Amino acid sequence: MNVIRKQWLRIGVQEKLHILIQGTLIILFFILMEWVVDRFEVQIDRAAESHAEETADGLINGMNMLMLTGQVSDPGNRRLLLDKMSQSRGIAELRIIRGRSVVEQFGPGLPEEQAADAMDREVLATGKTLFHRVTLADGREALRVVVPFIAQRNFRGTDCLACHSAEAGSVNGAASVTIDLTEEEAQLAEIKDLLWIGHIVLQVLLLVIISLFVRMVIVRNISRPVRKLHDTMAEIQHDMDLSRRADVDANNPDIGEMAQSFNVLVGKLEDATARLQLFAKMFDNSSEAIVITDAQRNIVAVNPAFVEITGYTADEMMGKNPKVLSSGKQTAEFYNTMWMTLNETGQWSGEIWNRRKNGEIYPEWLSIGVVKNHRGETINYISLFSDITKRKEAEQRIEFLAHYDSLTKLPNRALFADRLKRALVIASRNGKKTALMFLDLDKFKDINDRLGHLAGDLLLQSVAERVKSCVRESDTICRQGGDEFMVLLEDIAGADDVAKVAHKIISVMSEPYQIGEHSLTVTFSIGAAIYPDDAGDDKALIHHADHAMYRAKESGRNNFQFFKRA
Ligand SMILES: Nc1nc2c(ncn2[C@@H]2O[C@H](COP(=O)(O)OP(=O)(O)OP(=O)(O)O)[C@@H](O)[C@H]2O)c(=O)[nH]1
């Protein structure tokens, strides 16, 4: 059975269709042939039966004649009658069988007149005609009919009871007629042969017709459209031209629908490919580095921005864990919190320090997202990061510019104001003194005018350095603007401390500066005021120190003055 199934699966649709159609026709023709032969056999049997009955009738009539003429008691006459009648066409054997009443009245008669078999006995017992197909000793086919003779006043025109002492209606005897069916069987065989020949010729014809028909149907409706569809598929695959579509034949529902479904599929593929290309472009052109890992956190893809930022090639990173980039700046606890947030919320973003291939450590802004499948299982992690070194530098620069003077790198007026306020609060709390010195370069305009603004700038930077060297680390110097400086001296004992610093500054300023090829000497006019002696708050302190400085200017410059109340 399995072998047949395998063979069946191996053959093509054309052959399958052919086998099914022709197989069905062969079975139908067989049934038809059987039916026709059966009909003929029935006809033959009926003809033989009526032949037998007629012969039996003739025999009875003959016997009656012998009875009526008183010749029946001579066995020779009876044999002669049987011999004569046996000569009739189609009679194979003819016998008279004596019934019980005849045997009792006239004796057993000739041996062949005794009941010879069960069929004879059954007819004598029942009085009913029996028919049986038999095969004669020489092999011929025959029909044997045993017809009973019934004792009656009028049995087919004869009063049996006139001579027979038998009960009316009892069986007097029977006639066994065997009809030779050789001729009919020969005819039937001939008909069978003709039917077979006709059948075979018809099947050969059908073989050709069905073959042509099936081929035509398959080729036109299946093979040709399938080949066409296949060619289109192959072209699309070869050219990767997803804008192409297969021809749809509305008159061929099967393949037409298949082509339509194929077109829908290609359309979806085209859309998906376009989206994929778009994402691929984004991936390649993004200025942000992108890293994709699998669920085990092994890298499966990195983009060009990643290569640019980290210095690692894509090949070097494939299959590696992104922690190879770790700078060691973050603690284990930091990473634990990061993974916990990621697992709980599906995303994390923050600042992190990583290490480039060349060993350089850099800050990056990192965002990690978890990708899950429809079962909720993590399948990928996507990380995006950008190198924020420049941003951080810019922030630091903005921060610096907000609080420091860009030229001298000294605290600016805003930062100084803060420190002054804080210093006064501390001094007030601790009962200490704080001094504010106001310094203005003398005739600085002349230097600018003479040597240019750039030389003036260089001089301002050098002056700032020198002033710094005259005070403690904890003291604050600020460039107020232009050529003006302020110095905040915290925790001083009294005016002497301030005077010492002022004279120190005047002293260091006497040394000439080398600006390019020019040797320059500049001086300061310095004014000072002390908290809480000269002023109760920051504003007044500045104002008073400024006032003192003006007095120094008025006193011929290059000198130091304390605030004096008018
Ligand atoms: N090179 C340079 N010059 C500056 C800067 N800011 C202000 N100045 C100049 O510094 C000079 C200050 O002059 P003043 O303080 O008004 O006058 P002075 O010439 O110093 O004379 P006195 O203060 O009266 O002794 C001006 O010429 C300003 O243009 C700066 O950042 N760089």
Automatic annotation (TrEMBL):
Read off the SUPFAM superfamilies from this record.
HAMP domain-like (SSF158472), Nucleotide cyclase (SSF55073), PYP-like sensor domain (PAS domain) (SSF55785)
Q: Name one GO biological process term.
A: signal transduction
The chain positions of domain PAS read 275-321
Output the Gene Ontology terms for molecular function: catalytic activity
Stretches that traverse the bilayer: 20-37, 194-218
Q: Which GO terms describe its cellular component?
A: membrane
Supply the PANTHER family for this chain. DIGUANYLATE CYCLASE DGCT-RELATED, SLL0267 PROTEIN
* Record's protein name: Diguanylate cyclase
Name its species: Ferrigenium kumadai
What lineage is on file? Bacteria, Pseudomonadati, Pseudomonadota, Betaproteobacteria, Nitrosomonadales
